Amino acid sequence: MIMKHIRKNTPFYILGLLLLFSSCNKWLDVKPRTQMTEEEQFSTRQGYTDALFGIYQNSAGLGGYGKHLTFSLLDVLAQRYENKSVNTIIYYQIARYNYTDPDVRKVIDSVFNNSYQSIAQANYLLKNIDKSNGILDAASYKIIKGEALGMRGFLHFDLARLFAPNYAEGANAASPAIAYLKAFTVFPQARLSLGGVLDSCEADLKAAEVLLEDDKNIDRIAANQGSTNPDLFLQFRQNHLNYWAVKATLARLYLYKGDKVNALKYAKEVIASGKFTFINPSLINTDATSDGSDLTFTNEHVFSIYVSGLKKQADVYFKNIGPTGEGADLFSTKAKLDAMYQSTVGGYGTEIRRPQATRDLWNVVSPTVVYAKKYWSDKSTNVKQRVIPVIRLSEMYYIAAEAAPTIAEGLPFLNVVRTNRLLPELTSVSSQAAFDLELQFEYRKEFYAEGQLWFYYKRKNTLTIPDGVANPMTTAKYIFPLPDAEIEFGTSGGN
Known about the structure:
Blueprint: H1 2-8, H2 10-15, E1 19-20, E2 31-32, H3 38-41, H4 45-59, H5 73-77, H6 90-95, H7 102-129, H8 138-163, H9 194-212, H10 243-257, H11 260-272, E3 301-306, H12 310-317, H13 334-340, E4 362-366, E5 369-372, E6 387-392, H14 393-403, H15 407-420, H16 432-446, H17 452-459, H18 484-488
Antiparallel strand pairs: 1-2, 3-6, 4-5
């Protein structure tokens, strides 16, 4: 149960963890230096910033955005990869939505635990932030509190999208969802309705938006892998839930709720900010041994997570040394990728995301074994190789396209992404169904190994998932089960 998970981790949070920054290139690659009392932890500005970075560090764990909430569990559910036919491999069970399988349950429980541990860390910080008078300057106070509130809303939103039914424009608003933790406590918390959870997410994100509005700059990972800001706390703002990432999350939230007016408003604000730009196709560097490689297109990241151990994960899941895919690998086939990228469609041969593009983002071992290079991390000094995108600029264009009042008004947003990926513009679309199909293709192409496709399928209640082995989809297949302890101890009962 939530109470149990928080209590288990209470020594970490109550005593605090003084985090030590090793260098600008490893700003989140922090190690514990010593344990401190809560009062000592929050006696300096550094103590507050360390606690904030602890939220991101935990979220970058294997149960979070460092694996299962991006390239692993969620993309296996979305039928991205092969190795689904061998019943001794966990992918077999995951791809068939067998949530009762003991190994699958462990994975799902790890997602639940990781998210609530990060939320507990956010609440631990928020519990102390208003005691910081004289310790934090006004600007630091707003940023730290704003990011903590924003992450609390962000994490609860993803939990709701995973462990509750689809909102379905309010049809499931009254359905029991998850507990929304607003305090650092060891006492059990009852589940809220899905509508109540989303309202709480919105409130936290809106509060974060106000607090962060004075800090609209994005300090990018510069070409020299360093940063232009002398204050380490203000460096690499794309790897924080920054002001624009909060707005982008609100755009997601409103689209999920069916509030297209606000979804369009927030997506357009992120787009109009000018802080994020599409990669120039002619400048793409796919040499993972180079400091110049940028395989995830970092200028397009509205929010990304720094994963210090990403090389280890990439080497295990996205590389092999033989002609066949290995048991734990995450790979696809040439035929399936060609179909996804519509390689046989006239004018689509210039698509920069497809295998065998001019600057190829894939390793084609054989026709039946193709690996994404997206997370290859073979240059230790290249910071860009250790970040996983969580919100992209392109998603804001997709949200705007879907939320626009008419297809004619939405099509230009979709075409912006297409032209930046060297695809021809769509001059017209015959029907809403045809437009939705084009959007689905874009989600499939754009977010490979990033987890967003699963959320798209669930929101749209997709009944037939391309390349799926367990179609048709059902409501039950789209909802993760709560950990057994949550049910046993009653935190899952009632509103």
